[in-house]
Specification:
There is one protein chain. 67% of the residues lie in helices and 0% in strands.
Length: 435
């Protein structure tokens, strides 16, 4: 692979496993460290793969050792480890700035490519745009037969809404290396935009069957759940939320359940409201906009309007503009929907327009805000506006039962329509059918 020098066979296996997001990545990285304890890059990659589960003091200690050893190995190695230090400490702007210089000296370095997400995590449109351009430049330098960079470029195209290009690039990367996890994820994003439905679910199940412990197993199951919702297979979506997503996957569980509720369907197993409150009260509970938004969705699923009002006030008083100007009205709109005041929710969300992008996350994740607006419009009798809002989806997606149900009469979210895991009576959902 161009731009990467890993040395020994054990190092090459470990790097390939990490690039592929394999379930064997962490064991093989640890094997690499065990075989070469003085390799700073190996130690740093272990920190990159597992550091989010470590105590901050342990993470810092390991990376200080890694940087010391990397400096002895060479400038590229030291630069990589320094980037990992910044990235794992969520210093995203500094990471992005560092990567610009790193790629100038070592173009198309795959190990640095792991950290390209820093540009979008800056929550700054200018950084995101620069990151997209840098991604394209590195992929062109690496060439079309480099599966890691082709995979990352596919992800970029998916987030840009260039779904057909993302689909082709992801398919090409998977043709080069069938276990390319980033490409599988990019394909899931592209197929979400295309409404692939059961075909996407089948691919994801087959891909995961070969490596059930893949690093993104839960997340890909969440994508499969969304495709099942799109095609009307609500029992499968509930099953995945209950079996493939851990109790700690609050955001993905909430995002699945809120979609089910918006479409008048019973949710999967719910979150514990006390757990959500604890997460919000924890030191990192409001560290990032998108994380806080996910916790708000979990409260919405529980119809916890009072908690949502409190959270909206906290966000409105926050010194950070994204919290004040975007997150606060979104959370307030969720509170109004569950309280049965859709007109207020319509006004709040319509006023935001494209500013909802500042909530963070990616297109697939932010789409749920548009779903909420569409449902609120239906509940106020503005069916034409709701249909216009979703027309780009119903016109281009092969499966869009979900969108059809959003536009149909159904019990409002927060209303108990049936026990979890049971079917909602057909009469509740109106007479619309999937195409």
């Amino acid at each position: 692979m161009s731009g990467t020098t890993v040395g020994t066979p054990v190092a090459e296996r470990a790097v390939n496993a990490l690039l592929a997001l394999s379930g064997q990545a962490l064991p093989q990285l640890r094997e690499w460290v065990g075989s070469d304890p003085g390799c700073g890059v190996a130690r740093a990659l272990v920190s990159l793969a597992a550091g989010d589960r470590w105590d901050e003091a342990v993470l810092k200690e390991q990376l200080v050792i890694a940087h010391r050893d990397a400096q002895a190995a060479g400038e590229r190695e030291a630069s990589l480890v320094y980037g990992v230090f910044l990235f794992t400490h969520r210093q995203y702007r500094l990471t992005a700035d560092h990567l610009v210089g790193h790629f100038t000296r070592w173009p198309a370095d795959e190990l640095a490519g792991f950290m390209m997400g820093a540009f979008s995590s800056c929550e700054d449109a200018a950084y995101r745009k620069h990151g997209d351009a840098l991604m394209q430049q590195q992929a062109e330098t690496a060439g079309p037969d480099n599966w890691p960079w082709t995979s990352w470029l596919a992800s970029t195209r998916a987030e840009q809404g260039r779904s057909r290009e993302a689909y082709e690039l992801a398919g090409h990367a998977l043709g080069l290396y069938p276990r390319a996890g980033v490409a599988a994820h990019a394909l899931a994003h592209a197929e979400h935009e295309l409404g692939a439905g059961p075909a996407s679910v089948s691919f994801l199940d087959q891909w995961l069957a070969a490596d059930p412990q893949a690093m993104q197993s839960g997340h890909l199951n969440w994508h499969a759940a969304l495709q099942s919702i799109a095609s009307g297979d609500f029992p499968d979506a509930r099953r995945r939320a209950d079996t493939a997503l851990a109790r700690t996957d609050v955001g993905m569980r909430a995002a699945t359940n809120w979609r089910l509720l918006l479409a008048g369907q019973s949710p999967a197993g719910r979150s514990d409201p006390d757990q959500v409150r604890e997460l919000l009260a924890a030191p990192g509970g409001m560290a990032e906009v998108f994380h806080t938004f996910n916790l708000a969705l979990a409260l919405a699923v529980e119809a916890a309007a009072d908690d949502l009002h409190v959270l909206a006030r906290r966000a409105a008083a926050d010194e950070r503009a994204d919290f004040r100007e975007v997150l606060a009205p979104v959370v307030q709109a969720l509170a109004e929907v569950v309280a049965g005041r859709p007109r207020v929710a319509v006004d709040l969300l319509t006023g935001l327009g494209e500013e909802v992008e500042r909530v963070g996350g990616v297109r697939v994740e932010r789409e749920i805000i548009q779903d909420t607006l569409a449902r609120a419009l239906v509940d106020t009798g503005e069916h034409v506006r709701a249909a216009d809002l979703l027309r780009h989806r119903t016109a281009t997606r092969r499966h869009h039962t979900y969108e059809d149900l959003l536009l149909a009469a159904a019990p409002r979210p927060g209303t108990a329509v049936s026990a979890p895991g049971t079917a909602v009576p057909a009469a509740v959902l109106g007479t619309r059918t999937a195409p």
